[in-house]
Amino acid sequence: MELSRPGEPAYAGVAGTFSKLPLVLDPADLAGVDVAIVGAPIDEAVSARPGARFGPRAIRLADVSGGRSRPKDYGDVPVTPADAARSHEALKAGVAAICSAGVVPIVLGGDHSIAHPDVGAVAAHLRPAALGLIHFDAHADNAPSLWGVTRSHGTPMRLLVEEGSLPGERIVQIGLRGYWPDPEDFAWAREQGFRWHLMEEISERGMDAVMDDVLAVARTWDHTFLSFDIDVCDPAFAPGTGTPEPGGLTARDAIRAVRRIAAEVGLAGMEVVEVSPPYDQSDITALLAHRLVLEALSGLALRKLGREPRPERSRT
Amino acid sequence: MELSRPGEPAYAGVAGTFSKLPLVLDPADLAGVDVAIVGAPIDEAVSARPGARFGPRAIRLADVSGGRSRPKDYGDVPVTPADAARSHEALKAGVAAICSAGVVPIVLGGDHSIAHPDVGAVAAHLRPAALGLIHFDAHADNAPSLWGVTRSHGTPMRLLVEEGSLPGERIVQIGLRGYWPDPEDFAWAREQGFRWHLMEEISERGMDAVMDDVLAVARTWDHTFLSFDIDVCDPAFAPGTGTPEPGGLTARDAIRAVRRIAAEVGLAGMEVVEVSPPYDQSDITALLAHRLVLEALSGLALRKLGREPRPERSRT
Amino acid sequence: MELSRPGEPAYAGVAGTFSKLPLVLDPADLAGVDVAIVGAPIDEAVSARPGARFGPRAIRLADVSGGRSRPKDYGDVPVTPADAARSHEALKAGVAAICSAGVVPIVLGGDHSIAHPDVGAVAAHLRPAALGLIHFDAHADNAPSLWGVTRSHGTPMRLLVEEGSLPGERIVQIGLRGYWPDPEDFAWAREQGFRWHLMEEISERGMDAVMDDVLAVARTWDHTFLSFDIDVCDPAFAPGTGTPEPGGLTARDAIRAVRRIAAEVGLAGMEVVEVSPPYDQSDITALLAHRLVLEALSGLALRKLGREPRPERSRT
Amino acid sequence: MELSRPGEPAYAGVAGTFSKLPLVLDPADLAGVDVAIVGAPIDEAVSARPGARFGPRAIRLADVSGGRSRPKDYGDVPVTPADAARSHEALKAGVAAICSAGVVPIVLGGDHSIAHPDVGAVAAHLRPAALGLIHFDAHADNAPSLWGVTRSHGTPMRLLVEEGSLPGERIVQIGLRGYWPDPEDFAWAREQGFRWHLMEEISERGMDAVMDDVLAVARTWDHTFLSFDIDVCDPAFAPGTGTPEPGGLTARDAIRAVRRIAAEVGLAGMEVVEVSPPYDQSDITALLAHRLVLEALSGLALRKLGREPRPERSRT
Amino acid sequence: MELSRPGEPAYAGVAGTFSKLPLVLDPADLAGVDVAIVGAPIDEAVSARPGARFGPRAIRLADVSGGRSRPKDYGDVPVTPADAARSHEALKAGVAAICSAGVVPIVLGGDHSIAHPDVGAVAAHLRPAALGLIHFDAHADNAPSLWGVTRSHGTPMRLLVEEGSLPGERIVQIGLRGYWPDPEDFAWAREQGFRWHLMEEISERGMDAVMDDVLAVARTWDHTFLSFDIDVCDPAFAPGTGTPEPGGLTARDAIRAVRRIAAEVGLAGMEVVEVSPPYDQSDITALLAHRLVLEALSGLALRKLGREPRPERSRT
Amino acid sequence: MELSRPGEPAYAGVAGTFSKLPLVLDPADLAGVDVAIVGAPIDEAVSARPGARFGPRAIRLADVSGGRSRPKDYGDVPVTPADAARSHEALKAGVAAICSAGVVPIVLGGDHSIAHPDVGAVAAHLRPAALGLIHFDAHADNAPSLWGVTRSHGTPMRLLVEEGSLPGERIVQIGLRGYWPDPEDFAWAREQGFRWHLMEEISERGMDAVMDDVLAVARTWDHTFLSFDIDVCDPAFAPGTGTPEPGGLTARDAIRAVRRIAAEVGLAGMEVVEVSPPYDQSDITALLAHRLVLEALSGLALRKLGREPRPERSRT
Q1: ipTM of the prediction
Q2: Which of B81, B83, B147 sits opposite D9 (nearest CB)?
Q3: pLDDT tens-digit profile of E250-260?
Q4: Most C-beta atoms within 10 A of its C-beta, which of A104, B207, D97, F186?
Q5: CATH of B18-305, one of 3.40.30.10, 3.40.800.10, 3.60.120.10, 3.10.20.30
Q6: What CATH architecture is E31-303?
Q7: E189: chain D residues, CB-CB within 8 Å
């Protein structure tokens, strides 16, 4: 049994499937599957600390108690080290194949530049239906370029809007903070109709109230893609990331929000990005990312059953 | 002066007493003592990451500012590496000896399998008075077995109920979350009358409200044992543990809850378990565990004095 | 271009300026500058874990996204390893020179003993105007001595009051917790008119309410110095410190509080102390300290512009 | 494609095959295979620092450049957490199945207690042919019991001799040092005809001379099993182990010795044990263990080709 | 004083000069200077673990005792994150400018892809004089491409030969080992006249004898460039690198070899590459790289004085 | 049983005795004892990275296999944090008391400044007999002052000579390397008759030959003190130290040398200094220091028995 696609780099390929899910390497075998986990070990587009190429492996293995969900693991897309452009093409093709099989892709990044190919592939597949994006991040990722480089982890939201994959008014950003991006990029986002909820607003109104607003907007779309940059969480909860920014969400905030989204509006696709294992401590970032995927799977299952995303209590 | 019991393994035995408390190695010297700290460096029953055998030493030494309490440190019980059964017997005997001397045992674990011998010993000593258990944990620990193994850190609550040490209706669990245990184990717990407060409920109602309910129940018992699995705290606050689960309590939640329990209903015994130093970072998990013991001691002292568990404020 | 002052130890001196600010080594070049960052790599006065001598370098370099503020970096004061007294004199002279140039000093420590020389220098410069101190810390730092040593990181508040730099009634302490200092030191503080807000109070009333009280008091002073000991934050958010104490502020609490202080009452000086890189994890403590300085700079800028310390929201 | 055997713990099972070798889970598929890599994630028998259960996964993934050998990876044997006896039985059965298929097993441990079942299984398979053991270790592992426990990582050599799997005179130990075992155990070994080469001897005579002696002895046996405890290497080269002992072999010593053994006398089986990832640094121990397996594979291939274990030089 | 070139990324630019050397940012200020240290924080071309972009900063700061040499630090070349091609151009231009000023460049990498631009620039400057290359590395770095990518850290030697910067017969490689590159690449190297000394040869003949041969060859060239990939050292001595390979040189081997080269044949240029701080431990890799640069400077100084590279002994 | 002397800091005092030796806190109980281990947790005199105050605790606990020697552990001397002068006095008095009881002190440091009080105390006790010093170190430690500070870890050899405790001609230094101290300090040492063996000489002649010379000199003295600065070992073997210098001894070199000294010329006292746990990795530095003490104890025992320092071999 060959687990790896020929010629892949050492850090890519199957390194244990996500929570021991069955492995599928051929899109033809995706028939009847709901969701496919797919890895995108790409970090050539980072501007700060690289290392997210090790993210998919770390997230897949970050399972101390043994999960019980039943989707498939589709392995990693065939990346090319030191060539972000070629890797992005491979990711775009891989996600398109998953969508064509009628399966929801959950992409494990990789740096955030992968949002361009993967959200783009999902949008293309669904068109003309309206795809909206819920984007958790410390950073707006909507610059036109970083140090003159367009294919960057700071630009995917701009690229998606400019190529017509998504209009800005179907993008909601949650958790922005710090001293980035430049004012002109915020101005551009405002013109395009982006919505955002800064950490400051979350501190003042509470996470539940903000999420109520987010979900109300998402209900107006045909489909929702969830882009989760792990750096939206505070570095205390997610030290293993490339561009940490103090003052973020707690793990509890994040877990609850992801389950609500999956259960209340469903998912056409999801990505968890910027998990950078060389900077992680005792795997807590990978464990959190792993748990967020489980919450999405669990929310989707509850949604299918028509149940509320809320566990049963004991008698008092 | 011989500090160690003969023939103990390198990682067991006195490695500095808890906050430099006096050492007592002979139960005969416990006369007039209120509380005894006792170590149980046992982790042979874990199913995930071992390392909790180093917990007692780490907790004892995790003192950067110098404590001032006045109980005794009773050293470690005489464990047998690679033989959980024999170590459990030694722990049961050690706790029984402490109880017989009229002293409250505070056990530093060790993995959670030690709850079976230590809670059992306290229950046996107090019988026929009714002992109840307040159990902080990410996991319910009430499986009948793990991988076919009964003496496991996933089974102590089941063993205690089944052997009659405690009825299920005198067990309250706080902080459960994640995808464990199996539904049939939750069903069993419900039948036995367990109460539980999932993290989800704590997020919705707030920790203080939940603790009010817990304390109201505990007041109906004759005595309370506090079992504190450090993994009830979020991995950001307690990375040094064997089965971390994102989305847990903060240190502030935990500290406040432990002091309230000690001060408002008192303690017949306590254990702090699953501190695993190889996974700790800058000792923050050990420091938290150390502080939880100090809070219990302080709460017990306040209770003796009849004072409220609430510090004095400055003028405004 | 010589970046270093002659004869300084390897760990001191310019190791990249704060967020790539321009460097000024001569006080004569401070003309027209608002704020100067100055390093005080001194930890000879600690009683627990040393390492804060590496704090200024770590905080300056903890910049993953590139800041955009426009003050100056004044380098480190000329410290003498293994001689706290001489280093304190150098710090006092350096801060006095900055103040004389009409510039607000922001000091990167170093252990907390540096509050004695740096707050003292600012107080002396401003006298007879009334300087008050907002002091964030897990510890009160008002002992008369530690192990008989007066020049200690546990004594600066006592020294400042006793030498007349500040009356106790112009000191507000936030975040105290744990089992330190001795009752007699609290009694002394009460006599001197200190105000304090224990973590317990913050948990009960909420951080915003407490900060409203703090700011109301600060508005009665002519000038405010902000002393921020990073250990006021929970070890989950700030593991890289010498005397960690579980149960502290979150990064969000701290960031918000510092910006409010700078924007609402302004700053005559500031210090961030007790950042100890050998105990840090993935630089999260240094990143937080760096961000607190940015928040202060940003708050001061907003104050100059007469704007509220509150970011703009998107349309809903 | 199911990569895992049903019901295995999270840390066991396929987590990427060794250097991306094809995976074989069914012994029936071993036909025509020379060598099978098999994992034994068992550490319940350690007396010091546990963690070797994570060894097989770490060694398999410790491949930064991509290997090119062509054997198979047989996955992990079905272990039972917290039950060394049952896990040992599973290992013995797994190795027996590999041997029965005419395949050479290379076992990735796990603590050294696994030598008892795996060397025993190979000896039983080969009997009446004479199997000898080359044993690299800092410790003699020939105690009758540790703290009264017979199934221990300190006893396998004694158990193998006493059960008749191997006579002591067919055991050569290399690299012993430190203050273990007890004199009576050395005396027992001498009586049984063990040979040993202490580090002291290696320092005096040189590694090549000692290995010449070892190989001369091995050539008198029918078959050779190579048991390599990674702690024979100095902690500088192999920090990730449970019972480190300063003053050991270098990586160069070890690599050269393993290739010579495989090439000059061949291997009937091999194990690499006591790799404990929680104590590793930047994976250097796992990388070394991985390389030792590659050297064995490479030596076996050279032996098949009848070539010398010596690389070609460039012209001078 | 502006220490940084405008618009550079956070991790590039002056972060303390090498051993506190004076900083020169303008080539016009290089007059009268012997040697210039220049940083090349580029790692976009790695195929395994990225992180070498942090190498120049770490090497510069890795100075615990205070050096005393007197060259200049030229800062970092202006790199573009996520764009290796543009960064390589900047490096080539920077090194050319240094050479044009009559100064010897010592480049701190960065991944090994930088050898292409920096060795190329020195060769172009010296032509028609004959430049030879002494290349310390675990890997031959002479593949035509890696995963189809030409601009890679596995290809610079091929690129230099193919573009005519250096004939293969003026390249000597020391320390190669492991299972890379492919046989066809070794065959190509042999055709081109490369010389190499595998670790195996060094173990057999001793490092001094091998270096005697290397120096004999180098004396036949007009000029020598020294390319030092830190992974030539064993991971025990240099864990902080991207493609570690067990079984390498010791620090003593490396230090002695570098000083001999600088003193006995001189240097037209030097690079120290593949120092990757995220994988370093207690800075030992950066300290070693720093020391290798000091040895080169010291060797060059001895050569200028006509002295032997051998320190004075005390009387016996 | 009170294990601690009253009022000591948290990091000092009994934290497990060395290899579980009996504890003696009163010099009166030293009767009949050969050797006493005593801790000196002092690092206030370092000029680079502090942390050696945690050395005694780490060395004592660094015992994974259980030693079997029979001296006593005398606990730590009563140090004063942040006051090196007072701590030095306490150490001098403590060592004097041990010597007066006829016991050989083995001091666990602490930074190297402690050589001044402890070697001085032993010299004073033995006078007029001639004490000589064998000093292993990367650094000569014979500066008159560092940054103007006399009581420094860079000055003890100068202070000992100048106060008349030892003439320079009874000092032999082994392992010096790097770019320190200043030429004038080497000149001073030469005038005083110091002998030294640089690493360069050890590389050329071999460690055994150098040690033969050292022992020949030591045999001309009445008594020998062994001062072992752990940084004489390469950072690969001893990363946990304050002033690491690449290119040092291996652990095997060090272990063998210490045993030879103890066995061949005996010891009037010994110190192991500069073990700095915050910089250690997996305790390998503490384990090495612990082993060096065991080697000294073992060498002393062999000397008493009149046996050679050489273990028995098996038959060949």
Answers
A1: 0.92
A2: B147
A3: 999 999 999 99
A4: A104
A5: 3.40.800.10
A6: 3-Layer(aba) Sandwich (3.40)
A7: 314
